[in-house]
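Annotated sample (chain length 166).
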Amino acid sequence: MTDPADTRAVLLKPGDALLIGNVGTHEATALADLVEALAIVRQALDLSTVTVFGDDIEMAAAAPVVPAADAVVLRVFDREAVAEHRAELAEWLSGNGIDPSHVAVDWLSIEQAGDHQLVRYPAYRLDQDGRHLRDPRDRDRVWTVERVSPLVKPLSLSNSHVDHSA
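Output written by the structure step:
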């Protein structure tokens, strides 16, 4: 039994990253069940990611899921570029563990934060049935929230993006 002094309460809100450490090693079937269960938890709580570590949490691996204020923007795709390359971007987003049906056709960026590259994008807020919610501040718009995910698969599109540098 766990010592109550070692027990922590964790507060999560939609869009947060959940990192779980010290789960140990498991056989393939148990690991597959764990992955499936955590996917359900991620969706149910609308978390940006759920990452599990066999040993202690590796903070270097956790860094990409935490939005970095000092991230350098490498590429920006505006609404036109996202719409123009929707099919290619959808495949690329999937390869980076992002469900393209949850990404608003608005903009997205690729950023550098230290040694990590990130994908920043607007994600639809969904209800328990997976339907888009209306923005409570503007009922004429669909509600989105900014998300950041680690870049796993590089993007191989031409530089047909809009430069937003000052």
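Annotation: Helices lie at 28-45, 59-62, 79-84, 86-95.
Annotation: The chain has four helices and eight strands.
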